[in-house]
Amino acid sequence: MSEFLAYLQLGFSHITDSNGYDHILFIMAICAVYTLVDWKKVVILVTAFTAGHSITLALSTLGYVNVNADWIELLIPVTILITAFLNFFHSMPKNSYAPKEKHPAFRYPLALGFGLIHGLGFSNYLRALLGQEADIFNPLLGFNVGLELGQLIIVFIILVIAFAMIELLRVQKLSWIQVLSGIIFGMALSLILNNELFRTLTGMPVNS
Prior knowledge:
This is HupE / UreJ protein. Helices cover about 75% and strands about 0% of the residues.
């Protein structure tokens, strides 16, 4: 149990670590168009992301999947960039008599697919922690539970902030979505442009 709790704490710390904010940015991007009143939609969306990263986290940690870490470090900010970009096309009702906002069904398989990529990123960190350890079931389970707890806290904070901005401070929801998504898009683009593999592939000078 102590081993489980130790890896749970490591998983929680990993996803909430501000120094490795790429996963936080992705969660912000997929939640940017929602507030607390949309919590059911968010639960489904986050569950799809969780399913994706849980699959590849397990498969990669167990040695069944092996992807070059450099590609994963590049693909993760790409997933953030695409998700933030799609938020700009979020449709709002034109008037109070119009139907409720449409939430495209593609957001759910997209979260699942991008979760697969993020799971590979989580696994690289977990495998570095495990080293030559033979029994990985408890560490894998504990680390995954820690990731989920941290993820849920991040989601809750984002939804509360969105609720406060839109419902209490009366910021236009579309303006909130566009500003938040714009910030996330810019940060993701910066991560891509500073990625060593991207700079190598595009012929840009590699950061020293």
